[in-house]
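Q: Give me the 3D complex with zinc ion.
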Amino acid sequence: MMKRAKITTFKRGMATASGRSVALPPKTVAPVYQTREHRAWRDQVIARAGARCEFVDENGERCKKSAPYHRLFADHMVEIKDGGPLHDIANGQCLCGAHHAAKTARARAARRFT
Ligand SMILES: [Zn+2]
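A: Here is the predicted complex, encoded as structure tokens.
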């Protein structure tokens, strides 16, 4: 009887042609962000903030970036992926690009450890 060859497994997934260990999904805008309801929510969140980033640093200073000089994002404080309500104005905050990117990265990192 022939001995079976040992199957080698990769712990981090197979390398792909792109050189990444895991292929990233294509960049598309989720349909949920293109609805009229979502645009209304976003507009309300940004208007409530006076069209200014709502990030407050450790010294209590609020970020000074505002529209129309800076692009603003309506951010879900509790992200949809974490079960946050999609169109609840109470779950929205207005953030500039830098603070939105930092917050999104933090939420993603936190999710990895739960
Ligand atoms: Zn900001």
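A quick observation: The mean pLDDT is 85.
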